[in-house]
């Protein structure tokens, strides 16, 4: 349930509610809104009755959360969560563009691509060092050497880095180099990995599983949130359908649906959702028009030489054209490029018992 405090409730009154929640064996999660404080009581709420809180003078009202996911739901947090990475907001009024190669392949390849996507307007650099590949004989990624290159290119370009982590065991090493952790589609329900990422200080971009429903994606986000990490970004990357012309089917519906059900930022990956470079810009435009908070796009200086996902990688010039188009659509919707900020806005934080 959520306990909505009255405007002007004192810290002491908030602390009192938190103590009651914890005394009932529940976890307290705090949202410091602009106007008022909202406290989530998460766990087996059968043991605590709403009246235990309703009657406290500083409590405005108590509401049950009807969804199976609690911390991820908009019922719990009506404010849009904004994840801030090196001053770049994800989920704010502007849109955020992440771009780079599918895989880190060499210093020259990464640096050249990073400089090109930055010039075109990307704010965050993507690049996989640990790659989940269907075939064990395909390129599996450069591993730690790839992470070192990402960190070096971050120093040169000033762009924060997002990269995939595939196992809980890999987390400490990926954390050393990354600014945002990516959990891939194939690992959306790897609960041990979700729990490990829930204990990380880094934001997590969680990709929708190949055949996962929207509710299942939100339940997976809930695992990360419940383990203490409030900085979760949701990513629609296409799902399996009967259609085989494209690699996946972009579930454009998922964008407004996720924005309505959850306060978490929603990003679209038009590269994996189409699988063909010639459709990427059109679907990127559709995603921004549908309300996505940003895009993650694969770009390669020479797609025909790429060691993974060359088919769906844009050349830098085409990426530049795509950026101009999506920015124009964003402007129509009253959304510019995401602005630099120093402090995150209301985000739900677990309170230590
Ligand atoms: C990727 O981003 O390169 C990737 C493997 O994505 P997904 O997990 O969505 O397939
Ligand atoms: Mn890829």
Description of the structure:
With 353 residues, the chain is an alpha/beta fold. The protein has two domains: 2-64, 2-Layer Sandwich (Alpha-Beta Plaits); 83-332, TIM Barrel (Alpha-Beta Barrel), CATH 3.20.20.70. It is 33% helix and 18% strand. It has helices at residues 11-23, 51-54, 107-120, 144-157, 171-177, 191-198, 214-226, 254-261, 270-274, 277-289, 316-332; strands spanning 2-5, 27-32, 37-42, 59-63, 83-85, 88-90, 96-100, 124-126, 161-164, 180-183, 204-207, 232-236, 266-268, 294-298, 348-350. The chain has an eight-stranded parallel β-barrel with strand order 7-8-9-10-11-12-13-14, surrounded by seven helices. A five-stranded antiparallel β-sheet has the order 4-1-3-2-15. The chain has a two-stranded antiparallel ribbon with strand order 5-6. Strand 11 (204-207), helix 7 and strand 12 form a beta-alpha-beta unit. Helix 3 (107-120) runs parallel beside helix 11 (316-332) and helix 6 crosses helix 7. The structure holds phosphoenolpyruvate and manganese (II) ion. Manganese (II) ion is lined by residues 102, 272, 298, 308-309.
